Every structure is written in structure tokens, then in C-alpha cells.
Amino acid sequence: MTREPHNDLSRRERQIIDILYSQGRATAADVQTALPDPPSYSAVRAMLRILEVKGHIRHEQDGPRYIYLPTVARGSAQRSALHHMVHTFFEGSAEQAISALLDDSSSRMSDVELDRLARLIDQARRTGA
């Protein structure tokens, strides 16, 4: 099933998904501990159930505990979210999106990052991407 990850998520649900991506897998207690200004344990469990119903996470049973994991690989989620953002805010133009990133004074790129980007552009030219 192809989905646009994070498009139907609240801020708190996105935080939970981010925790699961960074930890790989976590219990409800682990998630609660990692959340800023954490809600109650039962509220975290309720949000985890909602994320399961939405298809963003799944659980495995480890004895009496549930261990939660994302259902979509992080790379796939990143590509899908980026595609959605480029389509929504930049009329589908990668050039406009990259230009906006380069023009953003709050995210100045280092020489190393700019060199890496230049190599990726050269590679895309050679492969016709």
C-alpha cells in the first residue's frame, strides 16, 4: 500500500513516529520517557493504538510487553514526505525546492555539503536522472 506518511498525523503522533524511527523499536514506557512534556502512560498507549489503526506502526509481543515498530522504512517515509512537499509547495519542481533550501539563511550549507551536492548533480547529469 502506498501512503503519504505523516500527512494524517497530529504533532504528538509525529513525535511518537520520530521516536520509533530513532530507536528502531520501543515500548509504550520508552516512548513516554522520550516525549517532550509527556502525557500519561495511558494516553501514550491510546496514541500508539491509533497509530496502529492508521497503519503507521505495528507491535510485537515480548512476554507481557508490546514492542512498537514503524511499518514503513525511514528512507521510504522520507522520500514519500519529500515528494509530497515538493509537489504541494514547489509545483513539483525539485529546482524550486533546492533553491529555497539554498536561499534559507537559517540552514547554511557547509563546503562539504555543497561539494557532495555538486557531485550528486554531476552524477544525475551523467545518468540522465
Q: Main β-sheet, in a few words? A: 2 strands, antiparallel
Secondary structure: helix percent:
55-70%
Supply the number of helical segments: 6
Overall 3D form = elongated
Give a brief outline of the structure.
This protein is mainly alpha-helical and 129 residues long.
Describe the overall structure.
This protein has 129 residues and is mainly α. Helices cover 59% and strands 9% of the residues. The chain has helices spanning 11-23, 28-34, 41-53, 74-89, 94-103, 111-127, and strands spanning 57-62, 65-70. A two-stranded antiparallel ribbon has the order 1-2. Helix 2 (28-34) crosses helix 3 (41-53). The protein starts with 10 loop residues before the first helix and ends with a helix. Mean pLDDT is 88; it is low at 1-5.
Protein traits:
mainly alpha; 129 residues; 6 helices; two-stranded antiparallel ribbon
What is the topological layout?
Elements: H1 11-23, H2 28-34, H3 41-53, E1 57-62, E2 65-70, H4 74-89, H5 94-103, H6 111-127
Helix pairs in contact: 2-3
